[in-house]
Write a structure and sequence with these properties.
single chain; alpha+beta; 3 domains; six-stranded antiparallel β-sheet; 9 strands; 37% helix; globular
Length: 253
Amino acid sequence: MPPTTPVLDPFADVMKVPLFTSGGMQSSRYAVMLDPQGQNFEAGIVSGDYQLVPNQNVCDIATDVLDRTGLTYDESKQLFDGRKFQQRWIIPELQAEPEVGDIVQVAVDVYNSYDGSTTFGLAFNAQRLVCSNGMVLDFMLGGFRFKHYGNEHFQEELTQAASRIRELGSRMIHLTNSLRKMINTPIHREDIQESFRQLNLPKTYISDVYMALNGDDLWALYNAYTDVLTKQESFRAENWNRQVSRRFIPSLN
């Protein structure tokens, strides 16, 4: 049987550990070790000046920002693979309703990494209420990257991030119009096959998308894609979700 991925606690202790050459000299690189007193999982190799931010701190800061908005928010899904981390909150007050009863709410994702693959920040996305399908729309709704963690300018950044979230309300009209346009665009079998060709997703997803399709318009096809990809619960699927969303929903210029 293939080896199983260990179940890792995203909020376990994490630390940088110096590396040494075969000759016993300390290297300029460090190993990031998750749960050093337990599973001792190596999350990545980073430079000495890499700023390691524990995931618990990341979540605490994100909720601080959300509190500053004055908006209500609900905790949603979480992703963690030992290296990259993402936690989502939904903001019910910021929503689009492309048709009566079909509500899409703004999602605020905080992201972080222990391997240097991404820096600590926020991404603004969306989630369909009826089926909890995630919609990766940060290319349209934007985000916020923290640059001054740990110094005197950080409090100012928290205020700026909260302001960015409140400003999302003005972008919901554009999102609503885009979704309504999809609802009013009928699709045929040829359109579905063309979307497969253009997106070039892994072939294993194609039959799943067909099975998830429930309607004959572009909105139904988009939701079939996001349904399949959301259920994958992986960062790879999140990247595919972004690619799919770029094809179906235009950027806000």
